[in-house]
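Task: sequence in, structure out. Protein: SGNH hydrolase-type esterase domain-containing protein.
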Amino acid sequence: MRRAAPFGADLALIVVGANDLARLVPPDRAAAALGEAVRHLRRNGTTVVAATAPDLSWVPGVPPALRGLVQAASTELQHRQAAAAEAAGAVVAAVGAELGEAFAAEPGLFSADRFHPSSAGYARIAATLGPYVLDAAEPEAA
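Result:
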């Protein structure tokens, strides 16, 4: 985020991916990193919209026996990230459940590796986040 600050952006969208979960980064550390990024952007006058980590339990490669555990870990990380982002001044886009259901129902939203989103998946993510970004971009009523 420090590289973004010199641009003087009015609005930033932070979309957290699955790396912290996949790499077993402790939730407190992952949430602290997001909070620091938001604080840095906010200090520079940037409005921030943050989307927390996805629910990895719907990834096709997750064995059914582990889905509950993966969902619990995903939910814990999402809650901690949302709290850290909100405390730092971000608007939190709570889209995890909606996107998880969409990806579970539409296998074409995954790329060939069955882990990352496809072009259609990224388009769905963008469309889902669009209203949050547009709302955050609206000038405050006087």
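Residues 67-87 form the longest helix (21 residues).
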